[in-house]
Amino acid sequence: RKEVEQDPGPFNVPEGATVAFNCTYSNSASQSFFWYRQDCRKEPKLLMSVYSSGNEDGRFTAQLNRASQYISLLIRDSKLSDSATYLCVVTSGGSYIPTFGRGTSLIVHP
Amino acid sequence: NAGVTQTPKFRVLKTGQSMTLLCAQDMNHEYMYWYRQDPGMGLRLIHYSVGEGTTAKGEVPDGYNVSRLKKQNFLLGLESAAPSQTSVYFCASSYPVAGGPETQYFGPGTRLLVL
């Protein structure tokens, strides 16, 4: 079982839709969680960190469920510009190495 | 503040040739990483460094060597390129928080084609 798993998608949604992605992780000692966004042929960029209390930034909401070992990303009122691959990243305490999921592809169409 | 830069942006090699990819960061970050990204495979860690003069192997280190002689630079070397090393290479840097890395900042990538 991979340490960090994501549904690769693609999630194909119309503009204005609400879409949610989940990411599961296997290491219960994980302590840092992030969502990155990667546009086609570009580098990954931090979208948001995920805190135990959840995190909201405009149309984006990230949540952490430690008991079930998953994090989620909710995108409200999807825009065409939200089309990208969303990468889940998890780091365990004392590790120098973040673990990346393979990403979830989102396509927002008119 | 340029962030993380990578040189070159694109390169074509013949099998057996060697080359060095340069990564530079101006954020005074302790940690630096080299990844490769292939279709359907996600990001795979090649080598990483937790400080000047230190390097360590990642998930897919074979065929690559690295050096971190200066804190701001992390070099990735291919001694004898193979077609299987055709990929997009990303460098990243981050700073430690509570014993682990915080946000990673990525360079724009180097696209390598080995014929």
The share of residues in extended strands of chain A comes to over 45%
Note the run of SSEs of chain B as H and E.
Answer: EEEEEEEEEEEEE
> Structural class, judged by helices and strands of chain A?
mainly beta
What is the typical, i.e. mean, pLDDT of chain A? 92
> Looking at the chains present, what oligomeric state does this protein adopt?
heterodimer
Taking all Cα atoms into account, the compactness measure Rg of chain B is 13 Å
Most extensive interface: A-B, 24 and 28 residues
Helix content of chain A: under 10%
The fraction of residues in strands of chain B falls at over 45%
Supply the number of helical segments of chain A: 0
Mean pLDDT of chain B: 93
Largest sheet of chain A: 6 strands, mixed
Contiguous runs where pLDDT drops below 50 for at least 5 residues of chain B:
none
Tell how many strands the DSSP assignment of chain A holds: 11
Number of strands of chain B: 13
- State the shape of chain B: globular
Radius of gyration of chain A, in Å, reads 13 Å
Give the SSE map:
The complex is a heterodimer of chains A (110) and B (115).
Chain A: E1 4-6, E2 11-14, E3 19-25, E4 30-38, E5 45-49, E6 55-57, E7 60-65, E8 70-75, E9 84-92, E10 99-100, E11 104-109
Parallel strand pairs in A: 2-11
Antiparallel strand pairs in A: 1-3, 3-8, 4-5, 4-9, 6-7, 7-8, 9-10, 9-11
Chain B: E1 4-7, E2 10-13, E3 19-25, E4 31-38, E5 42-49, E6 56-57, E7 64-67, E8 73-78, E9 87-94, E10 96-97, E11 100-101, E12 105-106, E13 110-114
Parallel strand pairs in B: 2-13
Antiparallel strand pairs in B: 1-3, 3-8, 4-5, 4-9, 5-6, 7-8, 9-12, 9-13, 10-11
